[in-house]
Amino acid sequence: MDINISKASASFIPPREKKNILVASHLSHAFDYTLFENVDLEIKEGQSIAVLGVSGSGKSTLLHILATLLKPQHGRVLYDKQYLYERDSKDLLEIRRKDMGIIFQSHYLFKGFSVRENLEISSIIANKKIDDILLKDLNIYENLEQNVADLSGGQQQRVSIARVMMKKPRLIFADEPTGNLDRQTADDVMDVMLSYIQENKAGLFIVTHDERVASRCDIAYRLKDKRLVPVIL
Ligand SMILES: Nc1ncnc2c1ncn2[C@@H]1O[C@H](COP(=O)(O)OP(=O)(O)OP(=O)(O)O)[C@@H](O)[C@H]1O
Ligand SMILES: [Mg+2]
After folding, report:
1. Parent domain of 70
2. From the CA of 26, how far away is ligand 2's center (Å)?
3. Are 115 and 145 in contact (CB under 8 A)?
4. Where are the beta strands (DSSP E) in the chain?
């Protein structure tokens, strides 16, 4: 059977390449020992990236480098057409405040204060309203008036996720965001973050020990033998 190639190719529209938000090249970093060498990584609009790896392999360190918090010993991080660590500290602080949503491994909530007060602090800094829908999606709406110190670890984790997402960041950096959560709640939290990046053309960089969580991301890597190796889950 003849196939009309010219007709077939005329109707084929190649998918538009997604734009990069952040491009890291040749990153190396050591503390007492070399954590990683020559790591290249891109985060595109709407894209989610997971990094797995044993404890101490340098996952949090890599996240800190990408998220404006730590200058790498070698390599560069391109963001918004400029290299992050070539900007002055005022610029860097501005980017961190406006564009980066960093969910830390230890979540740094203000322990003597209520959930609402913790969220209000971010809402004032970011000049964004507290988003009730987000709180309902993360299942912490009912906890607004409780002192964060009285919440379970998993509830505190979700408050810290809400606090970061409320500012509508261009990039979410999440360090073990589902570490204290049961399977269903972890799935719900992933749903919230993945739909957010799709709807806002944002990017997600997530460090996790949970292969199920990593498998929901567009790309999963393992930090192993000082390299970032793509893995299929
Ligand atoms: N500021 C620092 N000064 C000195 N050493 C550090 C510093 N930050 C991290 N390290 C060391 O670097 C190594 C990697 O730490 P990192 O927190 O990046 O690991 P990780 O892969 O996130 O581990 P985990 O899964 O336990 O969170 C560890 O040995 C840690 O002690
Ligand atoms: Mg870590």
Report:
1. 14-231
2. 21
3. yes
4. 20-30, 34-44, 48-52, 74-79, 82-83, 100-103, 171-175, 203-207, 219-224, 227-231
Is the pTM above the cut of 0.70? yes
What is the CATH classification number for the domain harbouring 166? 3.40.50.300
Residues in the ligand 1 pocket, defined by CB under 6 Å: 31, 35, 53, 55-61, 105
- The residue whose C-alpha atom lies closest to atom 5 belonging to ligand 1 is 31
Residue 2 lies in a domain: no
Residue 28 CA to ligand 2 center (angstroms) comes to 17
Within-domain flag for 7: no
Number of domains in the chain: 1
pLDDT in tens, 131-187: 999 999 999 999 999 999 999 988 999 999 999 999 999 999 999 999 888 999 999
Q: Considering the domain boundaries, does residue 149 fall inside one?
A: yes
Paired tokens of 177: 């965001």
